[in-house]
Design goal:
The chain is mainly β. The radius of gyration is 22 Å and the shape is flat. The two termini are 32 Å apart.
């Protein structure tokens, strides 16, 4: 299969994928809009950050990343590239119920819910959705409350007041201590926490990504 030498390609303006890792073929198009399928199309270029389902990047920056993988590919770029991670079809239309009591304004993640049958006419708790798509309960609800159809947040999002373990590494020594989050946070970002002595400070948050 030919690489496409002598041809000019463009960076796609919109990209929709069902996985976090994007390849050359996901991002590069022929001038007529056809997807690039030459040699190197399967090479990974970038990965959406943990818990992010949407990103808007300068097309020139995307082109620079592609050129690192395929330096000989002639690419033009203009404007921005919008990347969207499609919902998992196994969970997007599923009905859910709470596994434990959930406070008002707490993010509802896959950790707190279980899949249940969708029953016509069944009353469900009132929920609100943030701009990033994260669902929250409007009022506190006990365990086993039906929530209806919605897409739970990945477990990489946590609420304020979540108990965590802070792990600090100093050479060969690792020190662990319990802390509590002072604000909502996402894996990959820094979040303010309070330790057992009452000290408040910012720490990087790393949580295993929800299965997709």
């Amino acid at each position: 299969m030919m690489l496409g030498l002598g041809m000019s390609f463009v960076i796609a303006a919109t990209v929709s994928v069902d996985r976090r890792e994007l390849t050359v073929g996901d991002l590069v198009r022929h001038a007529d809009g056809r997807r690039f399928a030459g040699a190197g199309a399967a090479l990974p270029v970038l990965r959406l950050p943990v818990a992010r389902r949407h990103a808007v990047l300068p097309a020139a920056s995307v082109a620079a990343l592609v050129r690192r993988r395929l330096p000989a590919l002639a690419i033009t770029s203009d404007g921005t590239t919008t990347i969207t991670l499609r919902p998992n079809p196994d969970t997007a239309m599923q009905c859910w119920a709470t596994l434990r009591a959930i406070a008002a304004d707490e993010a509802v993640t896959r950790r707190e819910v279980a899949a249940v049958p969708c029953l016509t006419g069944q009353p469900t708790a009132t929920m609100r959705t943030a701009r990033d798509g994260t669902a929250f309960l409007a009022t506190a609800q006990p365990a086993s409350t039906p929530l209806g159809r919605f897409l739970p947040a990945p477990v990489t999002r946590i609420a304020a007041g979540t108990a965590l373990t802070l792990r600090s590494v100093h050479g060969p020594v690792a020190i662990e201590r319990p802390v509590v989050t002072m604000q909502p946070g996402r894996s990959g970002n820094r979040v303010f926490v309070r330790d057992g002595a009452g000290r408040v400070f910012a720490a990087p948050l790393t949580i295993a990504e929800d299965a997709r």
